[in-house]
């Protein structure tokens, strides 16, 4: 049995390594596959312009495509053209995987009032890149109605240390702190493997987020204390930097109840455990 990972970057590689440790053959698709670890058989391909070769015994497909830049053109090429080429290649090879999972984003919820969001909340993406991600979800379900979409919150982990670097550089607290939502990369990868391998058929949609949807100021204050830095000052400018940076994430409380109801267990249930491990140097950054 083979696991095919379309978009074998940092997250996809971690997923592939976890499947490989469980004894599965893993094929990873990425533009430059020579950088992949030996446990993953690489296929160098630009999915936005070419259809991949599909192993005939493919049982699971993970679509973890990412855009090369934050432009609309790059998102269309990755999420729409890339997904279409993958699905067309599956059809051409007459391969019907047992399960398919698409990694999406909670950015498809443009919600800014601090309300609770779960899988029943209608998506309302803003025009632009967020709408393209949602279009990819709809394309997948139109072609493979039983596929699973996992909408991940902000991923942090090895090599994803933006917030830590901001605190070290003297970040300030926001006068109006929005709720923030996140998931450690290792938990995101573990959730993907868990959903694909569990005996019960996965739902069509899950939110991938940890147990702590909290105001951003709380996380910044925690990191400053862990780093041994002085208490952070309040940003009194007209438009605080933290507010400008957080606008894409909106202000919402994401629920992971449906994911937890599958008996999934987080290694890093909140930002505290995750960032402490990150500060201690735990984990590996993948190419």
UniProtKB/TrEMBL annotation:
GO terms for molecular function: aldehyde dehydrogenase (NAD+) activity. Pfam families: Epimerase. GO terms for cellular component: cytoplasm. InterPro entries: Epimerase_deHydtase, NAD(P)-bd_dom_sf, NAD(P)-dependent_oxidoreduct. Residues 4-201 form the NAD-dependent epimerase/dehydratase domain. This is SDR family NAD(P)-dependent oxidoreductase. It comes from Cryobacterium suzukii.
């Amino acid at each position: 049995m083979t696991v095919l990972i379309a978009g074998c970057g940092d997250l996809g590689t971690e997923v592939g390594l976890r499947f490989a440790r469980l004894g599965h053959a893993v094929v990873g698709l990425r533009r430059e596959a020579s950088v992949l670890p030996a446990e993953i058989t690489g296929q160098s391909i630009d999915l936005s312009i070419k259809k991949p070769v599909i192993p005939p015994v493919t049982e699971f497909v993970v679509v973890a495509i990412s855009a090369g830049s934050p432009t609309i053109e790059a998102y269309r090429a990755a999420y729409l053209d890339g997904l279409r080429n993958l699905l067309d290649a599956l059809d051409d090879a007459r391969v019907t995987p047992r399960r398919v999972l698409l990694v999406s984003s909670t950015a498809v919820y443009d919600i800014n009032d601090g309300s609770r969001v779960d899988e029943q909340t209608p998506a309302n993406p803003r025009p632009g890149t967020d709408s393209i991600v949602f279009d990819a979800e709809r394309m997948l379900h139109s072609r493979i109605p039983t596929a699973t979409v996992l909408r991940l919150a902000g991923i942090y982990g090895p090599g994803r240390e933006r917030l830590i670097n901001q605190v070290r550089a003297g970040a300030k607290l926001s006068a109006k702190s929005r709720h923030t939502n996140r998931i450690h990369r290792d938990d995101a990868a573990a959730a993907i493997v868990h959903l694909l391998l569990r005996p019960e058929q996965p739902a069509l949609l899950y939110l991938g987020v940890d147990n702590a949807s909290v105001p951003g100021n709380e996380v910044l204050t925690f990191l400053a204390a862990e780093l041994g830095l002085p208490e952070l000052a309040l940003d009194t400018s007209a438009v605080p930097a933290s507010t400008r940076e957080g606008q894409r994430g909106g202000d919402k409380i994401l629920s992971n109840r449906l994911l937890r109801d599958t008996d999934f267990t987080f290694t890093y249930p909140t930002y505290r455990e995750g960032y402490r491990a990150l500060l201690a140097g735990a984990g590996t950054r993948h190419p």
